[in-house]
Queue: 2 jobs
Job 1
Amino acid sequence: MIKATCRRIDTVTVVDLGGRITLGDGSTTLRDTVRNLLGQGETRILLNLGEVSYIDSSGLGELVSAFTLVRRSGGDLKLLNLTRKVHDLLQITKLYTVFDVQDDEARAIAAFGRANAPAGPQLAH
Amino acid sequence: MEQHQAIVLDSRIESVEEAEAAAERVAAGAGFDEGERHRIAMAVREITVNAVMHGNAYDRGKKVTIEFDLTPEELVVSIRDQGSGFDTTVVADPLAPENLLRQSGRGIFLARAFMDEVEVEPSGSGTSVRLIKHRQAKAPSRS
């Protein structure tokens, strides 16, 4: 089961996630949270994964889906505070090259301000 | 000493958690460290997801059988579904730049990354996947 709590810092919404992002409830919660934020016009999203103990391939797919959704909405999505296991998973799958991964919240918030043209693969529309 | 365990699971999402927990227990009993237990359990989870979702397609009349065989040399986990056969050669490379942003297709890749050997045998009566993790030989004690 996953927990998701949102808080606003400047123009960025920080989503504190905890638990497991896996096939079923965990993936659905992440998807719904990001879609709700986009529906409210919140397009600068920082996912804090510091308390996420486990992500499976379905959870990875949900992270990628959230990323593409936010980018297509003209926004940006970054990751914060990866655990060792999640960090390794992103490296193995090369998703580390897709996401902007940060380990300091203040710097991550500031990075949104600097990002005129976010790095990462071009998205097909 | 060799050990054998088998579990038969229904084709539902909850079975994935059961498979993962069973793999974690067996791996712990075999003496694998925390990191290896995590990798083994995740590989079993990913292949069981494939068996439930793609192999048996959530068919309540079909089962997923998981066998754990522990020898002094290795742990072998065999996961068998009753679907129509899953051809892994058609799975796109998830590391290819054009596939990085795909939402699915990483399960078998992760299993191969986390285990020492992965053997897939599709057939008309189901797919059987063997996950093999070698047990490290203990260094001789100095006395």
Note: Chain A touches chain B at residues 23-24, 56-58, 60-62, 64-65, 67-68, 85, 89, 92-95, 97-98, 121, 123 (CB under 8 Å).
Job 2
Amino acid sequence: MIEASGVSWRYGASPVIDGVTVTARPGRVLGLIGPNGSGKTTLLRLLYGALRSSTGKVTVDGGELGTLTPREAARRMAVVVQETGGETALTVAEMVLLGRNPHLSAFQRTGRDDHEIAARCLTRVGATHLAARPFAGLSGGERQRVLIARALAQEATHLLLDEPTNHLDIRYQHEILRLVRGLGTCSIVVLHDLNLAARYCDDLVLLGTGGVVAAGPAADVLDPEVLEPVYGIGIRRLDLEGELHLLFHPITRCGCGS
Amino acid sequence: MLGVGVQQRRTALWLLGLAAGLLATGLIAVGTGAVAISPVTVARIIGHQLSGAGTVTWTPPQEAIVWQVRLPRVLLGMLVGAGLAVCGVALQAMVRNVLADPYLLGINSGASSGAAAAILFGAGAAFGSHALPTSAFLGALAASLLVFLIARGGGRVTSVRLLLAGVAVGYALYATTSFLIFASGSAEGARSVMFWLLGSLSLARWDALLAVAALVIGGTVAYLTVVGRQLDALAVGDETAHTLGVSPDRFRVRLLVIVSLCVGVLVSASGSIGFVGLVVPHLARRLVGAPHVRVVPVAALLGAILLLGADVIARVLLAPQEIPIGIITALLGAPFLLVLIRRLHATKGI
């Protein structure tokens, strides 16, 4: 369980995140949604401690983030960031093995167990065939899957992902999110695509200017009346065979129809 | 399954081969010079000195040449080569730039200013025969402190701040050295400074300087090998390092302190020898891949061999005159770097 209460962050004078409170509950997938610049990534970075809020606090399974050592924090939270690491000369297997770092002491080398875990995680994201390839030579989608494998190899109790479906084609967008859902670990996912959020998230936090506009079960937050003013776009919601779908259309300002 | 075992065996083989190569190069290097001595005799003289074993089949002058003159020089060469190579590896990871080298932080410019002050104006005379290295080390220390304070200005030491601070301090101290040479008005002094700037191992003796170099450089190689996995994470990115349990800011500061100390010591002992710290890390990565646990020890051995080889060439090419070793490493290193760039272009399109 990750709980953030009253956290804030400002770039220069303008607050991006202002006194925000969110809770990610065990075994559930929490989606962070909102338009560009609403602070989704900033909030996520506050949650995993890359940014330290001057107000409020973040706790992970009851332990305050600021009091955990970096290694302890990395055993509780695995993060897939947007940083590509495209210049590295590491191979894919070596990249995934880095996920074992938080479990190894300074003088320990990666052992057979670590190699097996890494191999298993590569299989789970369907990237076993890439193991010996240089990471820098992969396509965007392949990289994303390898980074998710690294996060899985970390065997942390929480998984945080910053737009994991970026660069992925439609099939892998669904496969990766289904994988995350299937893990059963407490996950927080920053998502752009509201339909993916509808399908794969249990709870959603909708961020608007400066803070949380709505939070709660996905079906409640994905209400056209809530979303339309935040995104500035017309939305129709369909419930087809028990699944929720959103259709989007521009709001015409001149009133002359479209 | 991941091919990691294969890589580990490969690395072990390389390490063994390079260690044997270093030993052989060392014996040949000690034997080479105005008085040529066979590597076997060299080995027996060293063995006799260390343990008293073996019958004496050599002349006392031969023994003096091997033990008093050439061996300290060869040991210093190994240490400096290894130190330059691993500091290059660390800096390339720290600033995530393949063109980073040990002199990136302006430390050698600081040492040069110190050395120029000692040679031209007798600075550090209180340290007697160690005046030159001591003064150079103080210069290096001042430069690294300055770089650190500037890079620390924003509260965090980021790779970009580190690069900019290093370049700024480097240029400022380069100007200082030039001014010292200009102000002294001594042509002979200017020549000595120039010679020192291009690097030389001729200061090597069995003395405290060699002991300090062995301690600091040995420690640096060991430390960088131990933190190899953290270096891997840092080389991927700050955010990645953080999420893998390495605080990038604190780790970079620790690395900065250790690398500055190591570069300060080796520049004080041998002047600024270029290209070794730039080229060897690339070569090591080509041999054993990118993980630093493997790259650091391999780079240390390669650097040691390369510098010994360069020193032999520097001593024999225009014998009895000695060429500054920096000229040799640059002549060897530059074409090598061009080949690497071509390969890089062919394989990765960079």
Note: The two ends of chain B are 30 Å apart (CA to CA).
